[in-house]
Write a structure and sequence with these properties.
The chain is an alpha/beta fold and about 280 residues long. It has helices spanning about 5, 25-35, 55-70, 85-95, 125-135, 155-165, 180-190, 210-220, 225-235, 240-255, 275-280; strands spanning about 10-15, 45, 70-80, 100-105, 140-145, 170-175, 200, 200-205, 265. Strands 7-6-5-4-3-2-1-9-8 form a nine-stranded parallel beta sheet. Bound molecules: flavin-adenine dinucleotide (FAD). Flavin-adenine dinucleotide binds near residues 50, 107, 123 and 151.
Length: about 280
């Protein structure tokens, strides 16, 4: 089923997973998916290694989960390191596997410039390719409450966010963020600019101070000072950070739920504990 049709009917709950690097970790991922299925997610999504490293695995896990009928599936697809013909091949494979939902992404710029195919430059181009290939896909796209780190300005980034909608994106999922006011202010500006498709906020429960600092450095999300101080106190104690992360994510999601969001997406990091505890704390 197209996810947009679910979003149009109810507030959605969804989880993001990444394909593990080794086959042996696949068992852990399957257990996490099965653990979290008790919450009846509306969909799960599987990330795509930017260099195409998990290309096969993303497709395989998407297929298996789709076949299991546990929940609806969305596959991530990035374009910088692929030629147009490779993308068409991927789309054909997804279609054959009845995968109806794709989040169209540019991907991060690879360290080795030889990996760049220089054929598809932005998510907007990928969305156009998908749309031209088939109208049967529901297309999601990424958006950035604090703007994408490479953007010239917030306004410029918003303009390209709107272009994703114009090219055919059906809904957005945000980058992680820790300050809800960034999300609210982004959403307000997006609506003023004419963005009408749903914007689903995505939350990552923090489980390690060092890890979240690394992630936010990479993706350009900021950690508010007060949160950073708390995280510093438990820098060597991941158990304490995890407990605090659950409290913080609960607080963040409760406020978001009180402010008319179309659903909530969890960056699960392939672990079920924090997501489970947060979900037990809230009422979605
Ligand atoms: P784009 O939309 O192309 O934006 C990149 C930059 O270019 C921005 O500064 C934007 O303002 C600008 N821009 C956009 N369109 C144009 C245009 N037409 N002309 C000129 N400038 C433009 N990465 C992975 O490798 N695998 C994943 O599975 C993955 N999943 C993700 C899921 C979500 C929900 C999010 C938020 C991110 C995900 N990422 C993933 C990370 C993503 O690939 C990076 O953030 C990447 O740097 C940008 O991707 P994008 O699709 O937003 O790019």
């Amino acid at each position: 089923m197209k996810i947009i049709n679910i979003i149009n009917k109810k507030k959605t709950l969804s989880f993001e997973f990444f394909p593990p690097k080794t086959e042996s970790n696949l068992g852990n991922l399957n257990k996490t998916i099965s653990d979290l299925s008790e919450f009846n997610p509306d969909f799960v999504s599987f990330t795509y290694g930017a260099g195409g490293s998990t290309r096969k695995l993303t497709l395989e896990i998407s297929q298996k989960t789709k076949e299991s009928e546990i929940t609806e599936v969305m596959s991530h697809l990035t374009c910088l390191t692929h030629s147009k013909s490779e993308i068409i091949e991927m789309l054909s494979a997804y279609k054959k596997s009845n995968i109806e939902n794709i989040i169209a992404l540019r991907g991060d710029i690879p360290n080795n410039s030889n990996d760049l195919k220089k054929e598809i430059h932005h998510a907007t181009d990928l969305i156009e390719i998908i749309k031209n290939y088939s109208d049967d896909f529901c297309i999601a796209a990424a958006c950035y409450p604090e703007s994408h780190p490479e953007s010239i300005s917030k306004n410029d980034d918003l303009k390209f966010t709107k272009l994703k909608q114009s090219k055919g994106a059906d809904f957005f999922i945000t980058q992680l963020f820790f300050n809800n006011s960034d999300f609210f202010s982004f959403r307000e500006k997006a609506i003023k600019l004419g963005i009408t498709i749903p914007i689903i906020p995505a939350i990552m429960p923090i489980t390690s101070t060092r890890q979240i600092r690394k992630f936010t450095n990479l993706c350009g999300a900021s950690i508010p000072d007060s949160l950073n101080k708390k995280l510093e106190n438990s820098i060597n104690n991941d158990e304490e950070t995890t407990k605090f992360g659950i409290e913080f994510a609960t607080m963040q999601i409760n406020e978001l739920l009180n402010n008319d969001i179309p659903g909530i997406h969890f960056y699960s990091l392939n672990k079920s504990r924090s997501v489970k505890e947060v979900l037990n704390n809230i009422n979605i």
